[in-house]
Amino acid sequence: MAVRVVCHDLTKHFPPRTLFRGVSVTVEPHSLFAVTGRNGAGKTTLLKIIAGLVPSSCGVVQIADGGRILSLGEIRQTIGMVAPDLALYDALSGLENLAFFAEVRGVAAAREQIAELLELVGLTKRRHDLVATYSSGMKQRLQYAHALLHTPSILILDEPTSNLDSAGAQVVYGIMQRQRQHGSVVYATNDAREVALADAILQLD
Predict the structure, then answer these.
(1) For the chain, what is the domain count?
(2) 94-105 vs 111-120: helix axis angle to the nearest 10?
(3) C-alpha closest to that of 88 among 137, 152, 151
(4) Residue 68 is part of which domain span?
(5) pLDDT digits (tens, 9 = 90+) for 136-168
(6) CATH of the domain at 100
(7) Pick from 53, 134, 162, 166: most CB atoms within 10 A?
(8) Rounded to 5 degrees, what angle do the CA atoms 133, 104, 117 make?
(9) What is the pLDDT of residue 111?
């Protein structure tokens, strides 16, 4: 799918404060789109609006495949998101977490596909360990595997490498380049290395 994200005149108010006003951008297929700006400028909120998790105060987000606007149900299957507040189940293993989320999403993810995702994020050797024993960086890697379970066209990342060491960061950069082959990545960051990867940049004041 050639999925495109178009934001029309987005504004978000948290009275008495306005986070941002009049944001109009297009995220093209096969691209990396970075959202940057000072802390508190609304980067995370904008990502959540694009993902359909938070309503905008004004404006609209349209996600389209070619010329066809996708329905809310289709958008849910089109977007994968990695953010610090996404919960994992500590009482389950990494493998069991992915199998559970696949079932909840209604994704026919075979054990082989899950194994491939665990290998992609570097958790194969720890796949049977409880997530409670994972470091914060390992949990973030597992969140990436979770976000990719349904092969989303749009991958949304909030601070992509915030809890990761250099090896983990390289895993994420590889995932981002892999994603652009069949979709796009929208990510919030103030990391100069990550901003430099982008094809297009939105600066929030």
Answers:
(1) 1
(2) 120
(3) 137
(4) 3-204
(5) 999 999 999 999 999 999 999 999 998 899 999
(6) 3.40.50.300
(7) 134
(8) 55
(9) 80
